[in-house]
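Convert to structure. Protein one:
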Amino acid sequence: MLGPPHNHSMETPATFFLVGIPGLQSSYLWLAISLSAMYTIALLGNSLIMTVICMDSTLREPMFGFLCVLAAVDIVMASSVVPKMVSIFSSGHSSISFSACFAQMYFVHAATAMETGLLLAMALDRYVAICKPLHYKSILTPRVMLGMSVTITIRAVTFMTPLSWMVSHLPFCGSHVVPHSYCEHMAVAQLACADPMPSRLYSLIGSSIIVGSDVTFIAASYILILRAVFGLSSKNAQWKALSTCGSHVGVMALYYLPGMVSVYISWLGQDSVPLHTQVLLADLYLVFPPTLNPIIYGLRTKQLRERIRSFDVLPLSLLQLRFMNRKLFTP
């Protein structure tokens, strides 16, 4: 199925060249500025959430554990692609070594597979918290949480390892110019001299199964949550629950829709959809979620928001005291 063996060492390029976003070269400066701003927000927001959760012993509910892991995955996802994108858009430095390209490919796609699993785990957490509040601690025990996290990680690694192996062992004896802003596996596989169909088919089937099953369970969880919410007598409680669910669904839509649309466009609509639109969609689901997740899942969570405020009080007070001392003792 994979075709005859090739002399891989003779046909492996030393370097690939990333185009960026074909057709949008005139907007590269604005893209670099926007990406830098979003990356800074993603790093600061996710690092703050991880720090507060790890330092505060009161934040030991399963939801905060999943939030901490999600923040770490978001940092890995954004850091795998954004620095190189900014380098391309700002300085035109588009070269990437063969090993770095496939390392980037592995971490990007493994992180996205973990992200969708964590979104499912968090949806199940909310379902248990709202629909079965009396059994919350007995159902989501630390052992269950650890098992879910390990399962999500194993699933991502199991999916990505064969895909990376298949693409990295293709012969690349022609063009080394990747029409993308990062080493997206379909864009790289299309440069191979051999038939890339096995890896593309594996990617399509695998991502469809993973995302399809996760979205189905997430939708079922939120349907049950909404049924429970509309059964509440308090309108204020209904509004709070709907507001939280609505923001979560919005983030999920920003994550899932661009990713799946870009996958299916690469199969069905390459000629009808401009290349820059395809690349922008693929970039969108790697940059927006890490930027928005700390705001939607973190700052909108009351307990975490209060801890962040108290976490900032001490440094702020020290700065104020230092300023006052300097003002008092300055002649």
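Protein two, convert as well:
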Amino acid sequence: MTHTMETRQPRPSPPGDRAPRPGSASQRSGRRRENLAGYLFMSPWLAGFLLLTAGPMAVSLYFAFTDYNLFDAPQWIGLSNFQEMFADPRWQKSVEVTTKYVVIGTPLKLAAALGVALLLAQSRRGQAFYRAAFYAPSLIGASVSIAIVWRALFTDGAIVDRAQTQFFGLNVGGWVGDPDWILYSLVALTVWQFGAPMVIFLAGLKQVPRELYEAAAVDGAGPLRRFWNITLPMISPVLFFNVLLETIHSFQVFGSAYILGGQGNPCGPADATLVYTCYLYQQGFENSRMGFASAMAWMLLIAVGLVTAVLFWSQKRWVHYEENAR
């Protein structure tokens, strides 16, 4: 029996069914439509960025080189604001107070956040409630009402004063009235708001493989050794993120420092809580020296940028990323 093989030629497709050639007019038109749709969706953000961020920044940069009091036209004075700033004792005091606040408050806040995150990472009853309870201060801690309550807690004869006298034998009086102690009440307030970094730490801890802890336990490693050799290296990217974020936030503290100082004595007795932004506010809105305040704002931006650059440079030494993850 013979079989005949019949070769069929593919039927040519009609001209209307042909795919457009790369770079054809139809493809370019499609790309333009896609780009237009993308720009339309981005337009609210772009308008907000230009009108509320980039525009005011450009104007403030101009004001930094002028004598401007909010009422008269700005007068160009060059670098006079910066020269006066560096020679101002109160400006130097604000830099000192802010540096002390950042150096003390940020590590304590991150240590509290990591410690609580380690506890909450373990399975236990009521875990959701504890997470919400520890996170709540981050939502309300920055409010004016909480700062007022915090001031009442640390005044002379209040609950903190009575507790430290009764249990520790310390008779230092109210913290908010003592120039040597009021900054520590501000540090205590920021440490109390550890909920946000705690949640980020908790998410990082959930990503650490359990097999590493089991293998370390078989080898005889104790809890501290497992924490130092496994937990910290594995969550070092999360730790770096929290350090960077909380450091920037610490440089920007204002409301709580201003309120803890009290009426008639903002920024604390003897300028004990004269953080940088508090002095900037006084110069700009109380003394109507908007040009000087703008110069201070740009110096703060430069300082935060330098600190951020140092942190990014140092991460190569202590931040460990997974292979091919960067």
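Residues 95-318 form a domain with the MetI-like fold fold (CATH 1.10.3720.10). The CA atoms of residues 164 and 170 lie 5 Å apart.
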